[in-house]
Design a protein that fits this description.
Layout (H helix, E strand, L loop, with lengths): L11 H5 L4 H11 L5 H8 L9 H30 L12 H15 L6 H38 L1
Helix pairs in contact: 4-5, 4-6
InterPro entries: Complex1_LYR_dom (IPR008011), Complex1_LYR_LYRM7 (IPR045298)
Protein name: Complex 1 LYR protein domain-containing protein
GO biological process, one term: mitochondrial respiratory chain complex III assembly
């Protein structure tokens, strides 16, 4: 947008309508405004972050990667811990624990070389939500089973 704008300098005496140099100078000191539209836009448009040199940028990227790597490993450990509770077999006779671990490993391997921070964050949040949801559902089913057993034993 600023590239299309041309610098237009309008003398203050035309704006004010007076030739009095003292008045123009004092008005200018009070105003302290930009001389051109480009200067006005420069002051009020959010500027990009300052450019970092290559070493600082690499260090910042390493910190981000280390942080997301740590979060991913934490999520993976949480999944492994949560699968300990799934001890019954599926229709093929394989323990659900092993099926869940295998699927988790496969999903982590598919996302291993992902570099987009938004995608990584979305995957981590989705993973944490899925683990929490699975644990909550399992706990609810166990509560129902316990109530059913207590209610069935008292009849």
């Amino acid at each position: 947008m600023t590239a299309n704008l041309q610098k237009c300098r309008i003398p203050l005496k035309l704006i004010i309508g007076r030739n009095d140099a003292v008045f123009n100078c004092s008005w200018r000191l009070l105003h302290e405004g930009p001389d051109t539209v480009e200067e006005l836009l420069d002051r009020h448009i959010v500027k990009k972050e300052k450019h970092l040199d290559e070493e600082e940028e690499e260090l910042l990227n390493r910190r981000r990667l280390t942080s997301t790597r740590r979060e991913a490993l934490s999520l993976y450990r949480d999944i492994i811990r949560a699968t300990r509770f799934f001890m019954w077999p599926d229709s093929r006779g394989v323990l659900w624990r092993d099926v869940l671990r295998e699927n988790a490993r496969k999903e982590f391997e598919e996302a291993r070389f992902e570099t987009d921070p938004e995608v990584i964050t979305r995957l981590l949040i989705g993973g944490h939500d899925a683990v929490q949801s699975a644990i909550d559902k399992l706990a609810e089913k166990q509560r129902q089973q316990i109530q059913k057993e207590r209610g069935g034993g008292q009849d």
